Amino acid sequence: MSYQIFMDMSADVAPDIIKEGNVGCVPMEYSLGETMHTSYGPEPVEFMKMFYDGQRNGDLTRTSQISPYKYVEFFHPYMEKGINCLYLSLSSGLTSTGQSATLAADQLKEEFPDLELKVLDTKSATCGIGLLLDRAVRNQKAGMSLEENYEALEAVIPKLRCTFMVQNLTYLHRGGRVSAATATVANVLDIKPILKIDEKGELVTINKKRGNKQTLNTLLQIFDNERVTEDNDDPLYVLDSDAAELSDYLYEEVKKRCPNKRIYRSCLTPVIGAHTGPGLAAVCHIGK
């Protein structure tokens, strides 16, 4: 049974994977100051610089969840053409968009009983979804059916590792993910929190360091403890939100450790960056 793979714009993924896999992009909305934007695909570098500079200059940023109606509106033309769909959604631990997509899938099933819209809760975001997309595209090319691919990806989700540092907790506080007291203390003491997306797909703080260098080295220690040492085809991602000086260091260190791996660089999508702010640096990989 043929099918098309989809992601939403909370994902960061190498452009060649999108092209080679004919991956569809579900649009997402976000704001910069008073202006609303819709992301239909990976944003140009120039725009990303403007977005994070806007945050630095005090522009408030927020995002809008996708309603079930919007999902129906998006997927209906594909199913009308007889196309089955596999959609990798942003973690249910971070948003309810996946739930909205599932409601839409149920509604579309009534109209297209012989077709499938499978919604995979990735329990992840940004390059974590990118890692799953890489697998999904390779699985499809290897001949896996939609159901087989869905189940294979589900088995990988517990091994996703997305660990990152932020410059401060202001943006996560605005999004309701940390308390005002925690954010204030961290900002006053110049503490750089280290966070990860856990097995429930939720953000958790796992360490705190002072200064960027100590924090980056702690990220690398975590990577050393959790990375898979044997050869496989899965790539690695080094990610930043307009903080090339941080991700340059991470990239060089990761490259030393994994010289034969595909290592992609990515700038954090504004859909996630709206909640983390500029200066984020991350390593994303499939771990033990």
What features would you describe in this structure?
- The protein is an alpha/beta fold.
- The protein is 43% helix and 25% strand.
- It has two domains: 3-157, Rossmann fold; 159-286, Hypothetical Protein Tm841, Chain: A,domain 3 (2-Layer Sandwich), CATH 3.30.1180.
- It has helices at 15-20, 45-56, 68-80, 97-111, 126-141, 146-156, 170-174, 180-188, 212-226, 244-257, 270-276, and strands at 3-8, 24-26, 28-32, 35-39, 61-64, 84-89, 117-121, 160-165, 191-197, 203-210, 236-240, 263-267, 281-286.
- The strands form three sheets. Strands 10-9-8-13-11-12 form a six-stranded mixed beta sheet, with helices on both faces. Strands 2-1-6-7 form a four-stranded parallel beta sheet, with helices on both faces.
- Helix 3 packs across helix 4 (97-111) and helix 5 runs antiparallel to helix 6.
- It starts with a strand and ends with a strand.
List keywords for this structure.
four-stranded parallel β-sheet; Hypothetical Protein Tm841, Chain: A,domain 3; globular; 11 helices; about 290 residues; alpha/beta; Rossmann fold; six-stranded mixed β-sheet
